[in-house]
Write a structure and sequence with these properties.
The protein is α/β, with parallel strands linked by helices and about 475 residues long. It has three domains: about 160 residues, 3-Layer(aba) Sandwich (D-Maltodextrin-Binding Protein, domain 2), CATH 3.40.190.10; about 90 residues, D-Maltodextrin-Binding Protein, domain 2 (3-Layer(aba) Sandwich), CATH 3.40.190.10; about 180 residues, Lysozyme. It is about 50% helix and about 10% strand. It is built from 21 helices and 15 strands. The strands form six sheets. Strands 1-5-2-6 form a four-stranded parallel beta sheet. A three-stranded antiparallel beta sheet has the order 12-9-13, covered by helices on one side. A hairpin with a 2-residue loop joins strand 3 and strand 4. Helix 13 runs parallel beside helix 16, helix 16 packs across helix 17 and helix 17 packs across helix 21. The protein is globular, with a radius of gyration of 25 Å.
């Protein structure tokens, strides 16, 4: 992956794309001026140069470095589109939406993939591809603070929003009705940082897209959505005006991704775990991260390393099973921090299910067995989610859900498919002719979603610890 710098590299890029016969000064003016006069991106030029230049921004909903390298919804979409064109993906990373759109207008990329909503003002400046995800702009405040009930109450709260965003456009529209509406804008803080300020009670409220809010409520559970200030809006890629053939190819590709359920699978991958936010559950979990987890964290890390799992995954699964209570017991007889059945414990060679170390190791071993029994065709992270579902409901019902997926001509290797098939196992018309019959199929879906939520929060907490340790080391 190459993150392009602006300047000499861009002159070379456009020379390769057929921009000939210009002096260096003229070419520099073409590339850095604000007139937007750079030749419209074309498929032929992109394929001739062998690279697709995509402008994006660094954020949890677009592009970031995760545990296994570069990731993010926009990154995955752009990478796959570049692969479909047979060219290299070249990212140009900007710090904000405003900088992203300015770079596109200045001719510094073929398209912008940065979590952009199609607004009236933006459509005057750019062409847009098809919508691939729906979001709403929401007013977000803190529980216990001043929370407006509707537009008319907005002048009564201190409102801080990200400058150069669609949020500002919408607030300007609302001010045509609510004339005394005022707000502050900041160019230096991201939407995520502003949400943190709301959580810390440093500002009353902000406006953010619903997908950004949903992700951040896991880390700041006291954030409360007051109300939405838009209908559902489409996120879409922005392209330079005149890039008609590229726009047509983008539209064709997105249509194929939607038809093949690839878009649905990506939405599940990045947002499936944030559905059904439960404030009490998340707030309680975060409290127990401080009070209960420290006792068991070294064991989770030791066993996770032995079985090649992220320790946060094992810890999250244990919390879902027992809320980190070593002596937990269910009415059906499962026991211990990983809630193993007597039969499973015996098969794993565990004599005492109340032994915390033995239980955690047994749970990890059993989860590993589930993963190894799955077809090799199932990729990550779907493989892990499906193995967790098997841990909960039994592998036989996973096979039945895969049979149903094929019956509906869906991909049985995607968790996004199986989470729709498993609940069907509660209905006789679906389970009566399947080998393993009835199952409480909604339970494994909830089980996996909650584990993903908890693991995501733990990962964020761990990142925060590492950042704090790094600052302490710098001070020393």
């Amino acid at each position: 992956m190459v993150v392009a710098a602006v300047g000499v590299e861009w002159k070379a890029k456009w020379a390769r794309r057929g921009v000939r016969g210009l002096t260096v000064g003229a070419l520099t003016g073409l590339l850095t001026g604000c007139s937007g006069e750079r030749p419209a991106s074309s498929l032929a030029a992109i394929q001739s140069a062998g690279e697709l230049d995509v402008i994006t921004r660094n954020s949890p909903t677009t592009y970031f470095y995760g545990r296994h390298g570069e990731t993010g919804m926009e990154y995955e979409l752009a990478r796959r589109f570049a692969d479909a064109l047979g060219v290299e993906l070249n990212l140009i990373v900007k710090g904000s939406v405003a900088e992203t759109l300015q770079a596109l207008e200045n001719g510094r990329g073929d398209l912008a993939a940065a979590g952009l909503t199609r607004t009236r003002d933006r459509q005057k400046r750019f062409a847009f591809g098809p919508g691939y995800q729906k979001v709403q702009q929401q007013v977000v405040c803190r529980r216990g603070g001043t929370i407006p009930r509707d537009w008319e109450d907005l002048p009564d709260v201190e409102l801080l929003v990200k400058a150069g965003t669609s949020y500002v456009e919408r607030l300007q529209e609302i001010r045509q009705v609510v004339h005394d509406l005022e707000w502050r804008e900041t160019a230096s803080l991201s939407s995520e940082q502003i949400l943190a300020k709301v959580w810390h009670s440093e500002v009353d409220c902000t406006v953010a897209d619903s997908n950004i809010v949903a992700l951040n409520q896991r880390y700041y559970p006291e954030l409360k959505v007051a109300f939405a200030i838009t209908e559902q809006q489409a996120l879409a890629w922005a392209l330079p005006e005149g890039a008609d053939n590229l726009r047509s190819r983008v539209a064709e590709w997105f249509a194929a991704q939607e038809a093949g359920n690839e878009l649905a699978a990506l939405r599940e991958r990045f947002y499936g775990h944030v559905q059904g936010f439960d404030y009490v559950d998340i707030a309680t979990f975060k409290q127990r991260v401080k009070t209960r987890l420290p006792r068991f964290e070294p064991l989770f890390k030791e066993v996770a390393a032995e079985y090649h799992f992220p320790w946060e995954l094992l810890a999250a699964q244990a919390y879902q099973e027992s809320h980190w209570r070593p002596r937990a017991k269910s009415p059906t007889g499962v026991r211990g921090i990983m809630m193993l059945t007597q039969v499973t414990a015996r098969s794993l060679g565990i004599d005492n299910r109340l032994d915390v170390g033995a239980s955690i190791r047994g749970g990890a071993q059993y989860l590993k067995q589930m993963m190894e029994r799955l077809p090799k065709s199932i990729p990550e992270p779907d493989r892990t989610w499906i193995a967790l579902a098997a841990y909960n409901v039994g592998m036989g019902h996973i096979w039945d859900a895969r049979r149903l997926a094929r019956r509906f001509e869906r991909d049985p290797d995607q968790w996004n498919t199986l989470k729709e098939m498993l609940p069907l196992l509660t209905q006789r018309k679906y389970y009566k002719n399947l080998p393993y019959g009835y199952a409480r199929g909604t339970e494994p879906v909830t089980y996996v979603r909650r584990i993903r939520q908890y693991a995501d929060i733990l990962h964020r907490v761990e990142e925060g610890k590492r950042a704090s340790e790094g600052l302490e080391a710098q001070r020393e």
